[in-house]
Amino acid sequence: MTRQIVILGAGTAGTIMANRIARTYRRDIRAGRIALTVVDEDGPHLYQPGLLFLPFGRYRPEQLVKTKKPLLPRDARYVRGGIERVDPDASTVHLESGTTIGYDVLLVATGSHIAPEETEGLTGPGWREKVFDFYTLEGATALRDALAKFPGGRLVVNVVEMPIKCPVAPLEFAFLADDFFTRRGIRDRVEITYVTPLDGAFTKATCSHALAYLLEQKQVHLVTEFAAGRVDGAGGKLYAWDDTEVPFDLLVTIPAHKGADFIGRSAGLGDEMNFVLTDPHTLQARRAPNIFAIGDATNVPASKAGSVAHFEAEELIENLTRFLDGRPLEPSFDGHANCFIETGHDRALLIDFNYELEPVHGRFPFAWGPVPLLRESRLNHLGKLFFRWIYWNVLLPGRAIPGVPARMSPVGKHTMEMDQVSRQAPPPQHKAHAPTGV
Hints:
The chain is an alpha/beta fold. It contains 9 helices and 24 strands. A hairpin with a 4-residue loop joins strand 7 (92-95) and strand 8. It starts with a strand and ends in a 14-residue tail after the last helix.
């Protein structure tokens, strides 16, 4: 009997897992003992980290997209179509076309998407004229055109609520805006304000201590604990629920994020924002033992970032094998994440952390480096740019990155500092909307 493995979503996490499964079970798939199916409704595969740079002219839209099917393994069946719902009790996926697909194991990798309609007035008058996002290709392209002709004034970057994809990207945008307007020669005519619902620009104590100087250095004003409630695009005002207001001439919004709509139609699978209720260490869905989730689709308190999907995949392929063999799962995923933080002027810094440990100083990925942690350098900036090649050629094909293990390594990190932040760090929160990132 052929066992059916079905992956929902062919974005970053889904593509990585499809290639890992195809490589692990190549003989079984070709012998007909296992069938691998990938379901996705979108055409192009988008390199999402590039959206941060597109508004500043670093990339063109066509440089960030590729056709999805060639990125998937040849041994996988690709079904293009919308998903209506999952029936965990019957182990079936119902497509919008009326087709039903049965599964023995289901992997939900449908990511997350912005939901600007969740904020009153956000998509009303002024949308894509004075109010922009850069978390979509259309939004980033429109913002590029607006920034190119922006004469000066009040630029506001607002995170509506957490969690969001790539939690550091909004701050990176503010830093890159400082660089962009400096190069244009109008920085003295632009007031940049960063507005966040959190109690600081960073959620991690070590980042707040080590990186607070960046905001002062780049003259980025900070407004904290601002719960965005509505937007008056025509009047140029951002309002909190308590009616506190922040005026703007150009608003860059990071809207609320939600999981895929079908998750909300699948009984017991997700939370109120359609993120799959997932064990943070095994990545098994809480709804049914033969369902797993990965990447931005989960509610685990790890960053919604490409590196996390990569590290999750390395651990999940082992647990998938254990499940198919009838063995107990290993609670092996530690929330490992790392990411480059672009700070402008051709410099960036790197952070490396997990559920228990905050970012610390040191070197990465080896004891001798070559990349510094929590410190700006041009090498980090080049690493951020080089990541695009790694993404297409290493990450998506599901290959391991040499020297970068799935679990966070203490090698190269300042041991005493790690001991200190480990004592300070709270235990991982298993809530749907736990703040993530830095």
